[in-house]
Amino acid sequence: MAKQLTGKVALVAGGTRGAGRGTAIQLGAAGATVYVTGRSTRAQRSEMNRPETIEETAELVSAAGGVGIAVRVDHLVPAEVRALIARIESEQGALHVLVNDIWGTSQVEWNKTVWESDLDAGLHTLRLAVETHAITSHFALPLLIRNPGGLVVEMTDGTDEYNAATYRNSFFYDLAKGAVSRMAFALAHELRSHDTTSVLLTPGWLRSEDMLDSFGVAEENWRDALAVEPHFAISESPAYVGRAVAALAQDPEVSRWHGRSLSSGELAKTYGFTDLDGSQPDAWRYLVEVQDVGKPADTTGYR
């Protein structure tokens, strides 16, 4: 992409790994200055206990052509988020793109009812997945709306339509994803008069670092995992949803998407970007039409 975001400032809250890292890099590739936040640094890991760090992400942003700035922030701590926004205002004078991609829990209990679940773990999940987004929006939006044409992206897992009809195999996970969706809905109403676009955005089956590790593969040989899970053929790299955000941020008519629930696959068809392998996976249509109805894995017509 052309560097149309040169001079623009973005905050990717939760940019250590996965969709956040992919988004930060692609915004950098478009020329943006990107503040990358999270709890995992070279000095200390978060509860995720994974090797990825915000410093690595910031370096990848700069290598892609942008300016990456790593800031260690716990988005559950209002004072830390307030200080982050004050720093962005002091150093840049503006904020043009906010991506709320915070998640960061390793405690999801799958296939358990609410009464079977560990209550402390479930409530912790909600705090990390929902409360963090609210705190970040509270402090970041007053700076972002000062300039017309801003963009707010609430990152989630699943489109509104899919999540409304599908139980996500955990009471607390299901509730978290529904809450983020509703936050995007509320922000769309509150930002309508401020010339700021708010969207809900989901990747498809994401080849995050953790997901690749779970299959024992890397991005370079991810297709080896198909022997274990054939439907993994529809998966996408973090760069794909990152390119979706970058395309939105560069679109002079981005307000046409205001209040919408979007997916990387849907936006790829509109903007023409591709995943790293040149394909355009459309995971959420595939899940409904192939995987969830029990058909054999076949991505023909879906990537």
Structural overview:
This protein is globular. Strand 4, helix 4 (119-144) and strand 5 form a beta-alpha-beta unit. It contains ten helices and seven strands. It has 303 residues and is of the alpha/beta class. The mean pLDDT is 96. It has helices at residues 18-29, 54-64, 78-92, 119-144, 160-165, 171-190, 209-215, 238-250, 264-271, 283-291, and strands spanning 9-13, 33-38, 67-72, 97-100, 150-155, 196-202, 261-263. It has one domain: Rossmann fold, CATH 3.40.50.
Structure at a glance:
The protein is an alpha/beta fold and 303 residues long. 42% of the residues lie in helices and 12% in strands.
* Radius of gyration computed on alpha carbons: 18 Å
Continuous helix count: 10
User: On the 0-100 scale, what is the average pLDDT?
Assistant: 96
* CATH topology descriptor: Rossmann fold
Q: What strand order characterises the main sheet?
A: 3-2-1-4-5-6-7
CATH class: Alpha Beta
CATH architecture call: 3-Layer(aba) Sandwich
Helices and strands, in order, run as EHEHEHEHEHHEHHEHH
Number of domains: 1
